[in-house]
Amino acid sequence: MKFMKLGSRPDTFYTSEDLRCVSSEVSSDYTIEISGSRYHLHKFPLLSKCLRLQRMCSESPESNQLPDFPGGVEAFELCAKYCYGMTITISAYNIVAARCAAEYLQMSEEVEKGNLVYKLEVFLNTCILNGWRDSIVTLHTTKAFPLWSEDLAITSRCIEAIASKVLSHPSKVSLSHSHSRRVRDDDTSSNRAAAASRGWWAEDIAELGIDLYWRTMIAIKSGGKVPSSLIGDALRVYASKWLPSLQRNRKQVGKKEDSDSDSESDVSSKHRLLLESIISLLPAEKAAVSCSFLLKLLKAANILNASSSSKMELARRVALQLEEATVSDLLIPPTSYKSEMLYDVDVVATILEQFMILGQTSPPTSPLRGKKGMMDRRQRSRSAENIDLEFQESRRSSSASHSSKLKVAKLVDGYLQQIARDAHKNLNKSERKRICRVLDCKKLSMEACMHAAQNEMLPLRVVVQVLFYEQARAAAATNNGEVKMTELPSNIKALLAAHNIDPSNPSAAAFSTTTSMAGPEDQWSVSGLKSPKSKLSGTLRSKLAEDEEIDERFMNQGGGRTPSRFKAFCAIPGRPKKMFSKFLSINRNSNDKN
């Protein structure tokens, strides 16, 4: 890093009891107090370079205090030593404090030509701001003097210098020694150019506080030369450095929420501001950041109780690329750790709703018409090849949209399996039966049916319904009058055989008749399954009847009160259930076509 030395005399400042003095043959004649520290100095060297001290001695000789001195005693001593001609060293770490102190003391050209203010300005403009690392360090130190730095335009000059270096070719940037430790001295110009494409600047500016970082990123984005993907990478680096762990468990969050400490509240507010600032910096382009990163920000937004507008913006951006997400990405903790739900289902439903809204907007098959005249004539004179090309583009866009819906439908299948396994694993038989009433076995995908047939926690009646519907679909798949059966796994065949159900000769008609004539609630009755045409054995019919009797006894106990765990499930609003059913329908239809 660059530095500047001023003066040639040795440092003769010393401390005597509670005073700071200068070793000299001449006795001190001027006492001054800075931030509670007293100095016994000499008028001549100080007043000859400090206009403020001259005016203070002439206007109020008894006054010897300098209130609100920027930089405190360290900055004052630096200026005082300069007045005495002692050697001082200026670098990126102390130039802001020295510049603010010199401005406070009015060490300008009005008092002496080539005074301290002039020398500091020359060093700042010609050396500090030309270096990459020096500019970042200087900008970082301005946070201790925000008002002074803004008035003296130090902050804005540092931001402009950093942004110009990011926008320029790396070969034109003067990198400091600290950065060259990452970019070795033997690197060629081609290697440095490759470093620019990787966003070599992201880690360095991540050291800035959120206010200065936000302003710097705005300046970089306004240049229009940095790709949005590099902007997204820089935001990811900054978020991973400053945001709290996004995988904290509910107990840790609970301790934070229960705490009445003002310091922890301040930390939470700081993180919330940081998160919302990062969200405001996200590029508008779809592929600028990954869907996984967006969902991590959404998890942090829930943990930190971010504003609803920030959450909605993240949900909208996630919906644009939801097909890239995984089930673990969607497992978002609730806003409050006291919630009976382990995961926030509402926010996932909001994401799915936004995804469906985007999917309903079909791509145009032709360009939009403009004003009448030449545009209309050009529309009419388009060749058949151009029309065919636009039609093909439309079909490709529609196919891509359908493919995304299929991926999201499978994602929702996995998500529902995960949240059901973690939220309802301790329910009793009657509670499980009531929860399963929301299932529509006709719309389950093949994977869901396979899972249901092997899930020991599902009520037996659900398993039987699933198997019957799969048999009916298999029997309906005919080719030239021959039955085209779907091969079932051996364990499912064994389960069917155990209940006297022949997989190769299903009784689909009898089953479809009993279910189609009954409402959703009546489909749970065993009366339809007790028909002589049914392939169920007497043991299975008695088992189902016994389950129903237990169910009725359970409802009669306690005045029909509902268990708390079931209440937790029912607390899921109707809108998420409808949204999930839409995706299950999409997945089911795709399997039928296949």
Q: Say how many strands there are.
A: 8
Q: Any idea what the radius of gyration is?
A: 37 Å
Distance between the termini: 66 Å
Please give the share of residues in helix: 55-70%
Measured by DSSP, the beta-strand proportion falls in 5-15%
Number of helices: 29
What's the average pLDDT?
Answer: 76
What would you call the structural class? mainly alpha
Quickly list its features.
single chain; 594 residues; mainly alpha; two-stranded antiparallel ribbon; 29 helices
Task: Please give a structural write-up.
By secondary structure, this protein is mainly alpha-helical. Helix content is 58%, strand content 5%. It contains 29 helices and eight strands. The strands form three sheets. Strands 2-3-5-4 form a four-stranded mixed sheet, covered by helices on one side. A hairpin with a 2-residue loop joins strand 7 (478-479) and strand 8 (482-483). Helix 6 runs antiparallel to helix 8 (154-167), helix 19 packs across helix 29 (574-593) and helix 21 crosses helix 29. The longest helix has 40 residues, at 384-423. It is elongated. Mean pLDDT is 76; it is low at 176-186, 191-196, 247-260, 362-375, 377-385, 479-486, 506-540 and 558-574.
